[in-house]
Design a protein that fits this description.
112 residues, mainly alpha, globular
């Protein structure tokens, strides 16, 4: 369930900026963008995802996956045919976010 952002006594400038700050905080972290990118083209099992992202620790991967699950950007699917196998995939929300991230990246890189 999504709750409305309450701004309290914030002035108009802060109110306009608060949603942007909310998004930046939600996607904060060195690895969230990499994880979203890795899952954009196809779902991954945990170990395959870990192998595809060099330098990420298992602890960090698990934490970042849990954050993205709580944001409903990715979903965790437990496979019935494999014991203890979990596959991660982007939700429709996650698939919608990826092109936006790509566009923002393009804009920022074009103006450097």
């Amino acid at each position: 369930m999504h709750t409305a952002i309450k701004y309290g006594n914030c002035n108009a400038v802060i109110q306009r900026g608060c949603p942007i700050e909310t998004v930046l905080r939600a996607l904060d972290g060195k690895w969230k963008g990499v994880i979203i990118s890795a899952l954009y083209h196809e779902p991954h099992f945990y170990n395959a995802l870990h192998r595809d992202i060099p330098g990420i620790s298992r602890k960090t991967l698990t934490e970042q996956l849990n954050d993205l699950i709580s944001l409903q950007v990715i979903q965790k699917e437990e496979m019935d045919d494999y014991q203890n196998k979990v596959r991660y995939a982007l939700t429709p929300k996650g698939k919608a976010i990826y092109p936006m991230i790509q566009e923002i990246t393009h804009i920022i890189n074009a103006n450097l």
